[in-house]
Amino acid sequence: MEITPIRMRLQLFHSMDQVLKSTDSSHLNWDLLTLQSMVNLLENLTSIQQEQLKKGVLIGRYTNLSSGSHLMTITVSASIKDVQTSVQKFLDYFKVFPGQGATVEKIDDRDPRIQYGSMFKDWSDAELYASTEKYADINADASLASEATATIPFSGTGIRIYGLKTSASLGKALVTLDGKRNASS
């Protein structure tokens, strides 16, 4: 299923309808933030629609880890040059390499072991692994960075991150493994 502006607008209008039907004002601010995030996503995906868009592709690889338990944290980051744009990161699934002779584990983005900050939202698309994806959409407001994190515990000697990739920049993410900083993906 192709991501099209029409499909995205339909989802946006559905979300707007849900907000309007909401009678609990405590959820209204969260819903409005969700809508703003969806509007930003719509604008960015519409602008890159003509760019080559690839789904479920390798966007990060970390290998040669010591065998055992690890904790990976992905933080979507915005730099000063991103002030006028939205920074996004799309996560589809992960592959964990448990070590020699063991079966590679594929972990969906909705796996309950993964903890997401409040800036990560759900996306559905039949072309994705398990038809789901998580995305974070932030601007250069540094206060949002703490809520644009995904934390993945795993056991093995390596992990690969799969998500959305395009020839246009969707921003960078800081990846830490066991508290140590790694290259951006």
Quick structural gist:
Helices cover about 20% and strands about 40% of the residues.
Model description:
This protein is an alpha+beta fold and 185 residues long. Helix content is 20%, strand content 39%. The strands form two sheets. Strands 1, 3, 4, 6, 7 and 9 form a six-stranded antiparallel beta sheet that branches. A five-stranded antiparallel beta sheet has the order 5-8-2-10-11, with no helix packed on it. Strand 3 (87-97) and strand 4 form a beta hairpin. Helix 1 (5-21) runs antiparallel to helix 2 (28-47). The longest helix is centred in the N-terminal third of the chain and has 20 residues, at 28-47. Residues 1-7 and 80-84 have low confidence and may be disordered.
Spell out the blueprint of helices and strands.
Elements: H1 5-21, H2 28-47, E1 53-62, E2 69-77, E3 87-97, E4 105-108, E5 115-116, E6 120-124, E7 132-138, E8 149-155, E9 158-166, E10 172-177, E11 180-182
- Secondary-structure-based class equals alpha+beta
Unreliable stretches covering 5 or more consecutive residues: 1-7, 80-84
Strands, total number: 11
Please trace the helix and strand order, writing H or E for each element.
HHEEEEEEEEEEE
Terminus-to-terminus distance = 25 Å
Q: Give a short account of the largest sheet.
A: 6 strands, antiparallel
Radius of gyration, in angstroms, nearest whole number: 17 Å
* Mean pLDDT over the residues: 75
Helicity range: 10-25%
Shape: globular
Number of helices: 2
Strand content: 35-45%
Question: How would you name the oligomeric state of the polypeptide chains in this document?
Answer: single chain
